[in-house]
Amino acid sequence: MSTTRLLLLGVVRIFQPAYGYQLRRELLTWNVEAWANVNPGSIYTGLRTLAKHGYLQELAQDGAHRPGRTSYKLTADGETEYFSLLRGMLWTVDGFHPDKMQATISFMWSLRRDEVIAALEARISQLESWLKAEPYSERHILEDPATPNHVVEMFRITSARDGGELRWTREFLDRIRAGAYAFAGETADWEPYPGMVTHWGEIPDAPPTP
Questions:
Q1: Which of 27, 64, 121, 187 is least surrounded by CB atoms within 10 angstroms?
Q2: Structural domain of residue 28, as residue ranges?
């Protein structure tokens, strides 16, 4: 749920005010249903839930709340929640939920470069600690007569994932230290093409009726 919440708040923050139909279409171009396990049909529900909890403001067209035709923008609480989620996912490694780092990469540019560097350094330390401890977890399983030996492969696949993320994080950190990408307070390294700007300023057609 935290990944979905960050994705919804983040995409609203980029395009606000934006209609629910446009936000759903944008997120689907990110293939969120594949890597973040976001059900496309739940996006409208998620937006309404965030509005109910005070994180988004609903701007209904002609006073009528219709799926896809209500536009949204972040409230002050939504801005606070966005950065809280973003920082929590960036600073903390969660090997069983790689979607959290995937979502973080999508919005990392809204933080300053020095914080991203510090967070990646912290992630490297966490991963190094986990990898150092994993051989002892393996030994415990192999020496425990009550645990089937094949269970050790669960730790080995986790170790392989952690090792891969550690290598990527070190390389990513080197690229950022060398000046790659643009972060908060810096000149943007990408601008939307004019057609995209026009697209986000248009009222979308109503979603087709099933």
A1: 187
A2: 3-108
